[in-house]
Specification:
The protein is of the alpha/beta class. It has a domain at 2-238: Alpha-Beta Barrel (TIM Barrel), CATH 3.20.20. 29% of the residues lie in helices and 16% in strands. It contains 14 helices and 17 strands. It has helices at residues 23-33, 46-52, 90-100, 119-128, 145-148, 152-156, 174-177, 216-224, 258-263, 278-285, 306-314, 321-334, 337-343, 353-363; strands spanning 2-6, 37-39, 56-58, 61-64, 67-70, 72-76, 82-86, 132-135, 165-167, 187-189, 206-210, 230-236, 248-249, 274-275, 300-302, 367-370, 379-382. The strands form five sheets. Strands 3-4-5-2-1-11-12-15 form an eight-stranded mixed β-sheet. Strand 1, helix 1 (23-33) and strand 2 (37-39) form a beta-alpha-beta unit. Helix 11 (306-314) packs across helix 14 (353-363). 50% of the residues are buried.
C-alpha cells in the first residue's frame, strides 16, 4: 500500500505553535490533506505524551479518527544542532525522557527540548531505544547539522553508520543533497515541521512510502529500504522558495554571491549580517558539480499548498471566497489535496481552467521561483521555463 506521511510536526506544547495543534484537529486536517501517517511531534513532553496515550495504540502507531500517528520528537543538542527521532513505543519515549531530563532545563516546558548532549550521545540514546534518528532540516543556516558540521561523522562520530535518514528542509531538495556523496545511501525525508494544523502548513512537504501496513516496523523497513518497502516520492516546496536558499542580509534581505559575502566579511552595506544560504553551503560541501541520484532515490515533486496555487492562478489572495469555493469543489470531488495535486486526472473537474493549468505547471516543473534568503521566503510565479535535465535524471513520478 502507498502511505503519505508527514514525519515532523510540533504540538501545542512547543514554543510559537497554534493552540489547535491537538490530535483531533490534526487528524481532521490530515484527512483533508490526504495524509495517512502523521508525526505526533514533541513526544518527550509529559503532558503531550499523556494525551497521546489516551488513544488506541497498535504496533507503535496511535489511531485517531482513522488517522495514524507515530511518536516523534525534535531535540536540540549542545551545538545547537536539531535531531529528528522516530520512536517505536511509549515505553521507549519514557526511557528517553528519563535519560534526558537531568540534562535538560526545558524538557518539561517546551516540546522541542534542549539537552546537554552532543550528536554522538543522542544517536547512542536513539540506538539503545530502537529509534530512528537523523538531522532535522539539515541544510538551514540555523540549528542544522551542516551549519555546524562538515559531515555526518563530524556530528555523529562512529554512529554515523546508524543514520538512515536526513531531513532536507524547505530550502533544499534532492538535487541539492545528491551532490554530496556521503548522503547517497540515506533516505531523504521531506516534512512540514508544521506549527499550525491547517492544510496550508501541515504536510506542505510530505513523503510517500510503499508499506504493507501502517506500523513503526513497516515505516522502519521503508526508510531502510528492506523487503520491498521503500520511499516512492518526496513532495516539497521549490527549494528556491525557502527562507534561506541564497545568501542574504537578515536585516534588509539584499542577496549576495558567495564571493561578495566573503569580500564583505559577511556584513551587509546596511550593517546587518549576511547569512550564508543553503545553495552556497551545498556548493561548499558538494562532491559533484551536478547531482548523482542513486537508483533507490524516488522522484521529487515541487508543490505548494492548493489554496496558494488557486490564488496564484486567479491573481487574488488566498483568503478569498473565490479561492475557498474552488478549493471546496476540488476536495469534494477528489477527496483530498494530495489527490488533487498529485494523483488525479483533473481535466474534467469543472473549475476555472486557469487553476487546472496552474496545477499542471507544478506537476511539470514549469514554474519560476524568485529565490528567498536572509529569512525572507522566495516567490513562485507561473509561466516558468522547462527545467534543465540532470545528467542522471531521477525516475518519473509515473514510473511507480
Amino acid at each position: 500500500m502507498q502511505v503519505n506521511a508527514d514525519l515532523h510536526i510540533h504540538s501545542k506544547y512547543s514554543m510559537a505553535t497554534s493552540p489547535k495543534m491537538d490530535l483531533p484537529t490534526l487528524a481532521a486536517e490530515s484527512r483533508k490533506k490526504g495524509i495517512q501517517l502523521v508525526a505526533t511531534g514533541d513526544c518527550l513532553h509529559p503532558k503531550w505524551l499523556s494525551e497521546i496515550k489516551k488513544n488506541q495504540e497498535e504496533n507503535g502507531v496511535f489511531h485517531v479518527d482513522n488517522i495514524h500517528f507515530i511518536l516523534t520528537t525534535e531535540i536540540e543538542d549542545t551545538n545547537q544542532v536539531h535531531h529528528l527521532l522516530i520512536i517505536p513505543s511509549v515505553s521507549k519515549a519514557e526511557e528517553l525522557y528519563e535519560l534526558m531530563k537531568p540534562r535538560s532545563n526545558n524538557i518539561d516546558s517546551d516540546g522541542r527540548p534542549n539537552v546537554k548532549m552532543d550528536g554522538v550521545e543522542i544517536a547512542q540514546a536513539a540506538k539503545d531505544a530502537g529509534a530512528l534518528i537523523g538531522p532535522a532540516h539539515a541544510f538551514t543556516p540555523w540549528t542544522a547539522m551542516y551549519a555546524y558540521h562538515n559531515s555526518l561523522k563530524d556530528c555523529y562520530g562512529d554512529l554515523a553508520n546508524y543514520i538512515y535518514i536526513i531531513e532536507l528542509g524547505l530550502s533544499a531538495d534532492t538535487s541539492y543533497a545528491d551532490r554530496i556523496s556521503e548522503l547517497s545511501c540515506l533516505t531523504f525525508l521531506t516534512n512540514s515541521d508544521a506549527h499550525s494544523p491547517y492544510v496550508n502548513k501541515l504536510a506542505r512537504e510530505f513523503n510517500r512510502f510503499e508499506m504493507e501496513d501502517i506500523s513503526f516496523g513497516e515505516l522502519s523497513m521503508a526508510i531502510i529500504r528492506e523487503k520491498g518497502r521503500k520511499p516512492l516520492l518526496n513532495v516539497g516546496m521549490p527549494p528556491e522558495e525557502g527562507k534561506y536558499n541564497e545568501s542574504a542580509c537578515i536585516r534588509c534581505f539584499k542577496h549576495y554571491t558567495m564571493r561578495e559575502s566573503m569580500i564583505k566579511n559577511w556584513r551587509c552595506s546596511c550593517g546587518g549580517t549576511i547569512k550564508k544560504g543553503v545553495k552556497d553551503r551545498v556548493n561548499e560541501l558538494a562532491s559533484y558539480d551536478t547531482p548523482k541520484h542513486p537508483p533507490h532515490r524516488p522522484p521529487y515533486l515541487h508543490l505548494i499548498p492548493l489554496s496558494e496555487i488557486i490564488a496564484m492562478a486567479l491573481g487574488t489572495g488566498t483568503n478569498t471566497k473565490g479561492v475557498q469555493k474552488i478549493w471546496d469543489v476540488l476536495i469534494k470531488q477528489y477527496g483530498s489535496e494530495v489527490a488533487v495535486l498529485v494523483d488525479s486526472a483533473i481535466n474534467d473537474s469543472g473549475v476555472d481552467e486557469r487553476v487546472i493549468d496552474a496545477i499542471k505547471s507544478f506537476r511539470d516543473g514549469k514554474v519560476r521561483v524568485i529565490p528567498g534568503g536572509g529569512g525572507q521566503y522566495g516567490k513562485v510565479e507561473l509561466g516558468g521555463i522547462e527545467p534543465e535535465k540532470a545528467p542522471e535524471p531521477q525516475k518519473s513520478l509515473f514510473d511507480f
